[in-house]
Design a protein that fits this description.
five-stranded antiparallel β-sheet; alpha+beta; five-stranded mixed β-sheet
Length: 403
């Protein structure tokens, strides 16, 4: 930064995300240490400014300022050195590590942005789709990528500081049971404030999150990691973004989520998603599991396939030892057509004579609540508990529908 004159208004380039926009100037009034922007709309009052021989560059945060090279909590998230030159060096290091793996970064690969590139593993298939999502976090100390083509699913992470690297990157562990995996191997970490608040908005408590070992992908507070466990051992993980994108590592064997909660019970609740399982627990039911995948669009008209060919419902066969002990199964799938189709497919395989079906209450005169979490948010845990306790016999429900 150029030198400034105390007591006068000084103009400099904004060091926040609007740096590339040359028209955005930070206005510095040293007398009262107040900062404002023309179009950045990010005024930052501060009690004082630290300077060094009248030559300094501010580190702008919502709380305080610091000289270049000082370690502060930045507006980008985690604490780090925010010298522009070091930030460029870190981005360059991350790109070099990715390029060693064939990831050709372009101008979209900048901190805080999600870029879409050609996957070097599957090359986008015949259409050469840019299916590789690449993200460098705002602190520029972590890069992560994932190919969203179902036949590929290549994923990994690289660290600018050399942490846990393997030829310049740290690849997320590929799940292949019965090989044991760990949270460290999958690069997971405890939930941060952002995701705890996200669950709080959905009436899910921190206690419930801890009990179910809900985590997040390391370095990214926008990706939830639902850990699947059997006898306390981590056997898989399902990822979800706040925007409701889901995926599992390629080769992951399918299990019911919350399996250890039904190992010694005779009555269980089955829901359609991990958040619904957590919601049912908030209503007082710990004997609840969730299916790991989505619901079918319609009910199949074919006979139930053999165990080896019933791929879509392999999780039921994998958990047969647990399910065979159960005498009553409450199906609390979503209230839409797909959810009802899932309930039918589950009942066909589990035996309709031991299944009960939840009827979601009316939201208004034209529609009902969709799932357990929506009831929990809108009506509370007591209402959700009552809905589950008043589930009807599946055979009676289907008979009434026919009539």
């Amino acid at each position: 930064m150029d030198t400034f004159t105390p007591g006068k208004i000084n103009h400099f380039l904004c060091p926040k995300v609007c740096v590339p926009m040359m028209q955005n100037k930070v206005v510095v009034a040293v007398s009262n240490a107040f900062f404002s922007y023309n179009s950045c709309k990010w005024p930052v009052p501060s009690k004082h400014i630290l300077s060094n021989n009248n030559c300094w560059a501010p580190i702008l945060t919502r709380r305080r300022l610091g000289p270049v090279g000082s370690r502060v909590r930045s507006c980008y998230g985690n604490s780090k050195f925010l010298n522009p030159q070091s930030e460029k060096h870190e981005v360059r290091v991350l790109k070099q590590k990715m390029e060693l793996l064939g990831i050709n970064c372009d101008d979209s690969c900048i901190p805080g942005n999600y870029g879409h590139l050609l996957c070097p593993k599957c090359e986008g298939g015949r259409s050469m789709e840019k299916s590789l999502s690449v993200h460098i976090n705002r602190d520029a100390d972590l890069a992560m990528w994932r190919c969203y083509r179902t036949c590929c699913g290549w994923t990994g992470q690289a660290f600018a500081n050399g942490r846990v690297t393997n030829e310049g990157m740290n690849i997320i562990f590929k799940v292949s049971s019965p090989r044991q995996i760990t949270a460290e191997g999958m690069v997971l970490e405890p939930l941060g404030e952002k995701l705890i608040a996200y669950f709080g908005d959905r009436m899910i408590s921190e206690e419930t999150l801890r009990r179910n070992s809900v985590m997040q992908m390391a370095g990214d507070q926008g990706i939830i990691a639902f850990t699947y466990r059997q006898k306390g051992v981590l056997i898989g993980c399902k990822y979800r973004t706040i925007e409701k994108n889901f995926w599992q590592d390629k080769g992951t064997e399918k299990w019911l989520y919350g399996l250890d909660d039904i190992k010694e019970v005779t009555e269980i609740v089955i829901v359609e998603g991990e958040i619904d399982k957590l919601s049912v627990e908030e209503a007082g039911f710990f004997n609840c599991v969730s299916v790991p995948g989505g619901a079918p669009q319609t009910v199949s008209t074919k006979d139930i396939p053999s165990l080896e060919k019933d791929k879509a419902y392999q999780y039921l066969w994998n958990c047969k030892e647990y399910l065979d002990k159960v005498s009553r199964i409450i199906l609390a799938t979503d209230g839409d057509a797909s959810g009802q189709a899932l309930a039918e497919e589950l009942a066909r395989r589990l035996g309709k004579e031991r299944c009960w079906l939840v009827r979601w209450p009316k939201k208004d005169h034209s529609c009902c609540f969709k799932d357990a979490n929506e009831v929990l948010k809108c009506l509370g845990p007591s209402a959700l508990k009552e809905v589950i306790e008043t589930a009807e016999s599946y055979e009676v429900c289907t008979m009434n529908q026919v009539i």
